[in-house]
Amino acid sequence: MTQAEIKTFRVTLTKSPIGSIKSHRDCVRGLGLRRMNHTVEVLDTPENRGMAARVHHLVRSE
Known about the structure:
Order of helices and strands: EHEHE
Radius of gyration: 12 Å
Oligomer: single chain
Strand content: 15-25%
Distance between the termini: 23 Å
Mean pLDDT: 94
Number of strands: 3
């Protein structure tokens, strides 16, 4: 696969996961987000989409 064929989407941590339940904190960490306003590009897979959807109140997806 070439770089143009690989689908990704950007996720930004907009709210702190402190005080949220452990599974939500694990999803944030699983997406590779470490600190507030940190943006990462992740592969567009069902697993990553599901993690972003689970913590939609903490992140912004583009």
